[in-house]
Amino acid sequence: MGLVKAKIRKTKTGSGASDDMVGLSAALQAADPAERRSAARRLGSTTGCEAALLDRLAFEHEASVREMLVLSLMQLGTQDAVRGLAEHLRSEDASLRNAVVEALEAMPDAVAPNIELLLADHDPDVRIFACNLLVGLAHPDVPKWLSHVLENDSHVNVCAAAVDALTEIGRPDCVPALRACARRFPEEPFLSFAIDVAIARAAEQ
Amino acid sequence: MTNALPTPSAAEAGARRFTWPGTRVLVVDDAITIRLFCRQILEKAGFEVIEAINGLEGLEQLLQGTIDLIVVDVNMQKMDGYEMLREVRRQPVLSAIPAVMMSTKSKPEDVDKAYAAGANYYLFKPIRPEPFLACVRLLTATVQ
Amino acid sequence: MSALASEGQGAEGPPHPLSDEELAKFSEFFYRKTGIRLDERKRYYMERRIVERIRRTGCRSFFEYFTTLKLNGAAGELEALINEMTVNETYFWRENYQFECMTRSMLDEIARRKRPGEPIRIWSIPCSTGEEPYTIAIHILEYWARADSYDIEIFASDIDSNVLKRARDGTYDERSLSRLPPQLRARYFKLVSERRWQVINELRSSIAFGSVNLSDPLETARYRQIDLIFCRNLLIYFDDVSRRLAAENMFEAMSPGGFICLGHSESMSRITNLFRPRQFAEALVYQKPAPSRGA
Ligand SMILES: C[S@@+](CC[C@H](N)C(=O)[O-])C[C@H]1O[C@@H](n2cnc3c(N)ncnc32)[C@H](O)[C@@H]1O
Question: How far apart are CA A98 and CA C188, in angstroms?
Fold first, then answer.
């Protein structure tokens, strides 16, 4: 019959690039994407190599390598990783920005100390991303941060992002902030609609 | 939900007859409030609405069913709106589906990028019901 | 565990039944986290399971439970919930449309890329007690006309060595065999005791069983140039990071153009953008793109 019993290969260890940080950092620049991916993967379990991963992330255009760079930084989960990733929220490259939001929301403890700074950024896009990442961030201060945005941010789209985040979270204690936001933008049909939805979701029985 | 949308003007009501029964619009946005807002407007105007949370899920929906129009956001995880539209334009079975891109980004180069990726129309966020509906009607009327 | 179910709304009953808004909030959160859409029509079933988790975690209300679940990322609770919400079993011919897709569409496309003598490699992970890899094998032998022209290798892995032992042994009862057409049972099984059937030796020995943790790159490194992966009903149990690691490991293990089949309530679109959806007449599957993509 056509079925043949396969042999499961022995794991080849130490194949390709050497395992020390210098060797792996060099391999991040290799021409072959598979080699770059493998180096990025192995750097994810070595603390102290955030800089190498972040440097490469700025130039990497192969999607599969980029995924691995971000995943490794996520696994490191350090302050250096967070700050370096957050810088890329300003990137002109949409897929990089969004990969960064996704990574940041998965590292709540390291991200938390940076949230207030991000929410105060002069660039509304960065503030929108900060609200976006709060949706998935498992941290008890999320409602407080979002309420602050609703009461103070002057940009309608930043507020809309905060309303959306609260809709997903559904917190009755944020209803006053939602109402305050509605009063600040009475002319915006989308925002009034979204705030109504958020309030309905937050309503506790 | 207390927030009623503005009642359609006579012209808009007249335009309703151009809405083919069962015209299906795919709304791709990671923001739940946007998806609900679009849904409310579109269903009231007689469209059928399908939702997706990111570009990849959008592609899955497109491959699985007949979709007449795509409404897509720019920033989404896993696959952003540009990449999704490029993929749609690359696939022969999907390439003819018209698409509206909507975004908080309003610089001319952002608009150019949307058209380059394959959008047929661009709307700034926050979207307003009348221009949104007008654009949806325009693009779905062309295909039929 | 099933005490609550038989009690119904007894004295110990739920803290309070869930409101529409609570259920909507919950469904959305669950969907966002797992990609599983909870079926509105099974509201009673869902509600009972949520209430069971509220009770077991010692929370006093849905609000308290939901808040801890969301904001504190309550370790292990999401997995427990998923276990409550999903049916955890395996059987022959499960989600059969995917095997039909394999023999009617995917294998032909895979075969077109093969040079003479190159094997076709299929990997069932997690294979649990073996029903899935044996189903794959029987489907190929029965329904793929070109099976004789190719060397086809089937790997089957699971993290749990106990289930692997049972998989190698290949003895099943009526329940797991119920969907298998009777003439195929006669052809590929022998009766070994009352109501227990064992897969014939020839078939058992053609499958390479091995223990593998899909989230561990060192363990998956032994699997390369795989053309088709069945990874069904596993990723839903993982958290976000392990899910991505698992997807990365599958990507590494596959040949360009290779396919992945997930369980019917699972979707790659929440996990990674490494793969592209592919719609065949029989099923939606995921494909590893050819290398030049996106350049
Ligand atoms: C519900 S069964 C799925 C069986 C079969 N694929 C099906 O769909 O019918 C889930 C299996 O996943 C296995 N599993 C759990 N974690 C795993 C991991 N990290 N790597 C490999 N298998 C794992 C369990 O041992 C269990 O046998």
Answer: 50
**Helix or strand (DSSP H, E) at B123:** strand B121-124
Catalytic residue annotation of C: 49, 158
CA distance B47 to B136: 10
* Residue C158, annotated as binding a ligand: yes
Please report, for chain A, the start and end positions of each structural domain, with discontinuous segments joined by +.
1-106, 110-205
Element (H, E) at B85: helix B81-90
Instruction: Look at the alpha carbons of A41, A42, A47, A52 in this order and tell me if their dihedral is positive or negative.
Output: negative
Superfamily of domain C96-287, CATH level 4:
Vaccinia Virus protein VP39 (3.40.50.150)
Taking a C-beta distance cutoff of 8 angstroms, is the pair B48, B71 a contact?
no
Q: Cα A173 vs. chain centroid, distance in angstroms? A: 26
pLDDT of chain B, 144 residues: tens digit per residue: 333 334 444 444 444 445 567 899 999 999 999 999 999 999 999 999 999 999 999 999 999 988 999 999 999 999 999 999 999 999 999 999 999 999 998 888 999 999 999 999 999 999 999 999 999 999 998 544
Q: From CA A174, how far away is CA B69, in angstroms rounded?
A: 36
ipTM > 0.90 for the complex? no
CB A89 within 8 A of CB A117: no
CA of A164 to the centre of ligand 1 (A): 36
Question: What are the residue boundaries of the structural domains of chain C, listed by start?
Answer: 3-85, 96-287
For C3-85, give the CATH class. mainly alpha
- The answer to whether the beta carbons of residues A205 and C63 sit under 8 Å apart is no
Burial class from Cβ neighbours inside 10 Å (0-12, 13-18, 19+) for residue B4 reads exposed
Q: Is C213 annotated as a binding residue?
A: yes
Domain A1-106 in CATH 3.30.1360.200: no
The amino acid that residue C225 corresponds to is Q
| Mutation for A interface: B2, B30, B33, most A CBs within 10 A | B33
Q: Tokens 């849904």, residue?
A: B39
Chain B residues with CB under 8 Å of C273 CB are 56, 78-79, 83
Class (C level, CATH) for A110-205: mainly alpha
Chain C 61-120, residues with CB within 8 Å of chain A CB atoms: 63, 66, 70-73, 119
Domain B25-139 has CATH 3.30.300.20: no
